[in-house]
């Protein structure tokens, strides 16, 4: 083989026929082939034509076949591959040919050839020099492609190459294969590369479905010292990015290894903060931890860390108890460490006011950690019914309970320290930490029902904190420049109206309600939950002065609400709920104390009339609606609000319109109230007098009855009787029964207002159905029992069956009797014989009394 190699065709032809033994026999052939290939790349530095790309692809194809042939030695062919990857320019793609389909497939095939070479090398577990050249070449090529995609140049062309050329998979193999790892390029560089690739939206799916994600996830199972990559935080960034995309590849891995991962993360965080290191790695660990415990599909409360079923009979392994103990031990260590850091006022002030990089990281860490604490407490709350408190628990179980107790106490101390230290007017940034601290505190207000060994009463400590803050608000209020007093003869809306009109327009957002801010709202949210969960204990802390303070603020809110901006209105929607519930519980706890109750009478009257008339907050929040109706009912039934006021100036008609426009569950609540009012004699008398003049209530109630009947028919058509949702049926049946009772009472056993009902065709048929409702309902129940007997689901004695048949006949006859009575009334009414009609009414009433 002494012929001169003058063209690439000659080169390929020579290479195709050559064997390893030919090189040994001809010492010059290797040098001539090497020289030609080096010269080719030297003379063709840049993008290649289609023909030259064909040459290169053929070269790789031949070399792959040579090194794959076990009969041949491969050193010479490996050397040619080294020359190729060392000398070929990474920018060999000719973008001018991007629209040529054949050229695109040449480039795709080239990358696939490179992948084949990598897989061959992997099997041979050697050829480190070639690995190095391939890695550097592909790494540079991908960065070239990335820059073009980021700049929006030829995006579709490059994406096609990446997808069909399996370029992401190739990158993974040359960078992170267990055999080849660390031989190509530094891992830090490749992690950065994958991070950038993941941020390109079009490439996201390719990265996620590549094994690289599983490889990165496996780092969470290692000891921190094993991971040598400097930029570990980027691996966590990648994991978090995929996690938030709700991809199963991440969540399945974490679910399978949740205990180990969670405790490892906490260990790494604890190790970092011991040395006061709050770097990106530490921050990303904490973020990942937050996302994991927030996802209920990953963390199963009973199966991992938190609690065990009360009725559990089998033995729980010590391994799981150890994991639980370690979890709380790490959490407590972290809390104590941060608590020590913010122990003194000047320290926390310096930290929160300092904007250097180190303090920025700590502040970011602090905000995430407060969210983590909130989630852990919520988990404890949700699992509270599963806490096992057996007296026979072993020492390990007791240790777990002690750590949980410690967690609750150190958490309380931690968040209170932030709140107390930051009294006064905070900056926007400082307000974030206070609001987050209040969120944790609010969660703690709900855990008083939990009992652990030797646990301190969290709610008691909470009340002391709240009382101190309440006293501060009351003291500040004494120095306010505006105090609004409501009197029955003068609405607070009218107070100082003329004097302050210009002031309203100029400064409504900043000065009129200066107490309204996120921190203030969070404090009252905390108080709101304390009141809900500790209604009897709160009586010691909610005193007359505080109620007067709230009263004055409520008058201000109603007076200036329409002048406030959207953000302030949103805060006021929440604050109005908290105020209303506090007032409701104050009234409930002091019904027998005339002095304390007298204080709120004017306020109750004002709120009820204002909301019924103007509906400022009534439909802003479902809980406010609920609290308002409960307050109205409590006040009406205990003579704190005179019912006759509601019947004046169309207030009751407004109330019925509110009922008509409210949701079904709220209608139910309002019906219970009306039913309760009808049980109070003096209220019923006033209501009946009102209805004599205004019968709008019948139209609303009858329409609701008609709607319920329609829904029931619709539901029965869709399902067999046995399959109908029980809750659905019961809800509607309950409302129908309440409606029936109310209408029966208001119409004096269906004997009043019949002439009005008959005169309104829309009401007649509905009224007829209402009259027979009770008997028809009982008949339906007995018929169902009869059906069950026939189908042998139920067995009765002969006497019981006879009794059942008597009941069936009785109610069938009763329904016919009621229908006849109603028909007779209609006949008398149509004859216009008022005397005969009145006599018939009297006989009906007499019969009802006898019954």
Task: Please describe what this structure looks like.
By secondary structure, the protein is mainly alpha-helical. The chain has 3 domains: 1-210; 212-432, no CATH class; 457-641, no CATH class. It is built from 40 helices and no strands. It has helices at residues 8-17, 20-25, 27-43, 50-68, 75-87, 101-124, 128-150, 155-164, 167-176, 187-199, 204-208, 212-218, 232-244, 248-256, 258-274, 280-294, 318-341, 345-353, 357-382, 395-421, 428-444, 458-478, 497-507, 518-533, 544-560, 566-589, 594-598, 601-614, 622-637, 643-646, 651-661, 664-678, 681-693, 696-718, 726-746, 754-758, 761-771, 773-790, 798-830, 834-850. Helix 16 packs parallel to helix 19 (357-382). The chain is elongated.
List keywords for this structure.
851 residues; mainly alpha; 3 domains
Largest sheet: none
The residue-averaged pLDDT reads: 79
> Can you give the helix content as a percent range?
over 70%
Instruction: Kindly provide the radius of gyration, computed on alpha-carbon positions and rounded to a whole number of angstroms.
Output: 40 Å
Which blocks of ≥5 consecutive residues have pLDDT under 50? 307-318, 385-392, 495-510, 719-729
Describe the global form.
elongated
Beta-strand content: under 5%
Q: End-to-end span in angstroms? A: 126 Å
Structural class: mainly alpha
- The DSSP helix count reads 40
Number of strands: 0
Assembly form of the protein? single chain
Question: What is the total number of structural domains?
Answer: 3
């Amino acid at each position: 083989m002494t012929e001169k190699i003058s063209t690439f065709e000659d080169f390929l032809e020579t290479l195709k026929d050559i064997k390893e033994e030919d090189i040994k026999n001809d010492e010059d052939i290797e040098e001539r082939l090497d020289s030609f290939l080096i010269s080719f790349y030297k003379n063709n530095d840049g993008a290649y034509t289609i023909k030259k790309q064909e040459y290169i692809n053929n070269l790789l194809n031949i070399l792959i076949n040579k090194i794959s042939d076990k009969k041949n030695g491969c050193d010479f062919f490996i050397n040619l591959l080294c020359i190729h990857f060392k000398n070929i320019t990474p920018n060999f793609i000719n973008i001018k040919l991007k629209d040529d389909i054949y050229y695109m497939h040449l480039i795709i095939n080239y990358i696939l050839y490179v992948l084949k070479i990598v897989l061959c090398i992997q099997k041979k577990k050697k050829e480190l020099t070639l690995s190095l050249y391939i890695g550097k070449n592909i790494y540079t090529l991908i960065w070239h492609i990335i820059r073009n995609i980021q700049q929006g140049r030829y995006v579709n062309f490059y994406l096609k190459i990446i997808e069909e050329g399996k370029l992401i998979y190739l990158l993974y193999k040359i960078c992170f294969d267990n055999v080849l790892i660390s031989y190509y390029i530094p891992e830090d560089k490749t992690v950065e590369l994958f991070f950038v690739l993941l941020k390109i939206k079009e490439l996201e799916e390719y990265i996620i479905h590549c094994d690289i994600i599983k490889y990165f996830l496996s780092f969470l199972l290692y000891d921190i010292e094993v991971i040598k990559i400097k930029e570990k935080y980027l691996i966590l960034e990648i994991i978090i990015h995929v996690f938030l995309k709700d991809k199963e590849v991440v969540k399945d891995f974490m679910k399978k290894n949740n205990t180990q991962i969670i405790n490892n993360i906490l260990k790494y965080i604890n190790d970092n903060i011991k040395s006061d290191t709050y770097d990106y790695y530490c921050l990303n660990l904490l973020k990942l931890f937050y996302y994991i415990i927030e996802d209920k599909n990953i963390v199963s409360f009973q199966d991992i860390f938190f609690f065990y079923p009360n009725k559990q009979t089998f033995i729980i392994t010590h391994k799981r108890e150890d994991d639980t103990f370690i979890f709380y031990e790490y959490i407590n260590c972290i809390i104590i460490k941060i608590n020590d850091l913010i122990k003194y006022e000047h320290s926390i002030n310096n930290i929160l006011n300092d904007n250097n990089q180190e303090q920025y990281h700590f502040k970011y860490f602090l905000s995430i950690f407060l969210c983590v604490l909130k989630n852990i407490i919520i988990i404890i709350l949700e699992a509270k019914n599963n806490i096992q408190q057996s007296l026979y628990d072993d020492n390990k179980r007791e240790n777990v309970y002690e750590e949980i107790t410690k967690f609750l106490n150190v958490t309380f101390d931690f968040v209170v320290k932030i709140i107390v230290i930051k009294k006064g007017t905070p900056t926007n940034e400082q307000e974030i930490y206070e609001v987050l601290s209040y969120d944790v505190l609010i969660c703690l207000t709900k855990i008083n029902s939990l009992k652990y060994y030797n646990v301190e009463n969290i709610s008691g400590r909470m009340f002391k904190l709240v009382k101190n803050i309440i006293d501060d608000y009351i003291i500040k209020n004494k120095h306010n420049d505006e105090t609004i007093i409501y009197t029955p003869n003068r609405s607070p809306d009218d107070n100082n109206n003329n004097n302050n009109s210009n002031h309203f327009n100029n400064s409504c957002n900043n000065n009129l309600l200066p107490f309204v801010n996120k921190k203030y709202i969070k404090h009252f949210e905390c108080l709101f939950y304390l009141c809900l969960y500790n209604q009897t204990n709160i009586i010691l802390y909610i005193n007359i002065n505080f109620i007067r303070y709230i009263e004055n603020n409520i008058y201000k809110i109603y007076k200036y609400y329409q002048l406030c901006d959207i953000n302030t209105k949103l805060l006021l929607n929440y604050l109005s709920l908290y105020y209303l519930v506090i007032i409701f519980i104050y009234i409930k706890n002091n019904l027998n104390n005339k002095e304390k109750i007298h204080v709120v009478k004017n306020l109750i009257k004002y709120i009820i009339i204002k909301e019924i008339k103007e509906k400022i907050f009534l439909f802003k929040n479902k809980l406010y609606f609920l609290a308002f109706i409960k307050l109205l009912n409590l006040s009406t039934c205990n003579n704190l609000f005179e019912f006759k006021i509601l019947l004046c100036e169309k207030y009751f008609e407004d109330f019925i319109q509110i009922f008509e426009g409210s949701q079904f569950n709220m209608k139910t609540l309002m019906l219970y109230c009306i039913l309760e009012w009808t049980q109070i004699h003096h209220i019923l008398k006033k209501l009946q007098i009102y209805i004599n003049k205004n019968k709008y209530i019948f139209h609303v109630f009858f329409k609701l009855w008609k709607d319920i009947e329609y829904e029931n028919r619709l539901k029965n058509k869709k399902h067999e009787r046995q399959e109908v949702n029980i809750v659905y049926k019961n809800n509607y049946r309950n409302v129908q029964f309440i409606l029936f009772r109310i209408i029966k009472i208001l119409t004096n056993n269906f004997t009043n207002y019949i002439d009005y009902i008959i005169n309104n065709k829309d009401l007649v048929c509905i009224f007829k159905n209402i009259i027979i409702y009770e008997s028809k309902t009982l008949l339906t129940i007995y018929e169902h029992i009869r059906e069950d007997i026939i189908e042998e689901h139920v067995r009765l004695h002969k006497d019981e069956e006879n009794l059942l048949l008597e009941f069936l006949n009785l109610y069938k006859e009763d329904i016919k009797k009621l229908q006849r009575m109603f028909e007779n009334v209609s006949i008398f009414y149509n004859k216009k014989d008022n005397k005969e009609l009145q006599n018939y009414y009297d006989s009906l009433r007499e019969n009802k009394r006898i019954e």
